[in-house]
Amino acid sequence: xxxxxxxxxxxxxxxxxxxxxxxxxxxxxxxxxxxxxxxxxxxxxxxxxxxxxxxxxxxxxxxxxxxxxxxxxxxxxxxxxxxxxxxxxxxxxxxxxxxxxxxxxxxxxxxxxxxxxxxxxxxxxxxxxxxxxxxxxxxxxxxxxxxxxxxxxxxxxxxxxxxx
Length: 164
What we know:
Elements: E1 3-5, H1 7-15, H2 20-26, E2 29-32, H3 33-40, H4 46-54, E3 58-61, H5 66-76, H6 80-92, E4 96-98, H7 102-110, E5 115-116, H8 118-127, H9 133-145, H10 152-161
Parallel strand pairs: 1-4, 2-3, 4-5
Helix pairs in contact: 2-8, 3-6, 5-6, 8-9
């Protein structure tokens, strides 16, 4: 299975100590250079950068079709990381793109890409018995405490989709 990720699913899972879920769920993920740079470039987050650099399951890849990336950015207003993640997903025939931002998800859907976000990963982790019902609740609360917006509606949908 080929899985590509944007920045947004990685950072929240890292903040709540669940980055390893990505490896458990998918084995290995590809991230484009722009996403890698976003993840490691902030000097205030040296520990997090080291965690990304040391993660054997995160493979950074250079997107060769820069013209398509720039065209997508200009046409949609997406940032460089989102654009590279979408173009990389399309060009390598990824089975799944991990992305949370609504605008990026809309563009990726229009291109026929299969998507999963942070909440979707938590649901699958529950279904695969990697996380308990209570751990899902704890993860969502931790995500919210760390500034991640998860609507009450989405939280309810998640809880309804899993069983105690």
